[in-house]
## 1
Amino acid sequence: MLPYKKYRWMYTSGKKLVFGGKNAEQNEEVASWLIREAKKGKDYIVMHTAMPGSPFAVLFSDKHDEKDIMECAVFCASYSRAWRSGKKNTSVDIFHSSQIFKDSGMKEGTLGVFKKVRGVKAELKLCLEVQEGKLRGVPYQKEKKSFLICLKPGSISKEKTAEEIARIVGFKKQEVLEALPTGGFAIDNI
């Protein structure tokens, strides 16, 4: 198992681990690990936004449902360039790790996918929640009441947002910054 806590990570509402790279170097590590795992016969659901600039988000489970898949898609979309661009939603490609390949001429943090991929639209909206003692950005679920605050792309800087959230929820600013995507924010009143 990859040491997932060095990457972006969260658990779905169905208690399935999702993790993905924070940058091109980490995406390269995740892609290499996925390719090695596929050679051993282990096949995971992997996601990436249709446009460049997102984590390779891995749903680390062989037993998952459509809700887990959609929560992974929201995670992937929210930590992509789409958030920084202020989009409300973006397209996410869903494929299996057995479909990926890496050629020597490919840039760091990229991979190829053969066979057809499934696409979904994912809303960019994260709620902060404590998981394993860490502040995590997770997709909104209306039945859940444990969210500290919910956010969507907006015009308030990441620094100001982190300062305000730290003041409200009692976490250090650095911990909040680590849980947030890159870009601007608006508090989402749910």
Note: Residues 126-187 form one domain.
## 2
Amino acid sequence: MNPVIVVMGAEGVLGRYACRHFSRLGWEVVAVGRRRDGVACDDGMHLEWDGKNVGAWAMALEGADAVVNLADGDGAVARLESTHALGLGLASCRIAPRVWLNASTVDWYDRDHDRIHDEWSGELGKCAASRAALAWEDAFFGAVVPPRTRKVAMRLGRVLVQEAGTEKISGLAKDEAWLHMEDFLRALEFLLDDAFFSGVVNVISPHGLKGESRVRPLRLADEGFVWRWGRLAEAMDDLAARPGIDRFFESMVARPVGRGNGVPAGIF
């Protein structure tokens, strides 16, 4: 029997690519979203939700292997509501998923001072975005779920992808954290596979626009994750050559990780 993954926020950009990716890997994907339009599973099922209330979709959590919450919603309140609703759904499970990956943001960190941040030594910012990020993670870690469910909060930067029919990806701020969509999907696999990984993790590239980023993905590096696209210029060129979800996945396996084909873990 194939493993089952429930993807919340399946109609969003991250959710659409995650659904397609895990479907291609042989997972049974349950796509949960506010609307059916845009859901990109090769197969599997789609369940609707309003992003804030427990509904029939919660039955899909029972016995599932994993749940990934990529529902970003429209603003800080929507993020809290969706995380709270998912926590309630998990709390009612007799056999809950073994892992809950939840989106978060590197906006948690203090960007007003010129210092390096990682998961162990990073300082919380004082701006509204940082306070909202803290509340989001508090809702996640504060959710009372069965003990078997491992929690991972993914502090994301800007995940880069070229949607078909759109203009070139706009420029990044000087110290903005980013990640190629392919590495984002591989990081999801990595975090699902490591049965002992829990807590907060920076899911970003080790490099910024020019050299080192002020936010470092220390935990991914320490655990041996290898980035395929560690340099921004190469990442942008690759994405420009395969716009849209269909073109993206046509060449997803064309660049295997190996000697000379990645940024080794720990190399910043």
Note: The CA atoms of residues 16 and 40 lie 5 Å apart.
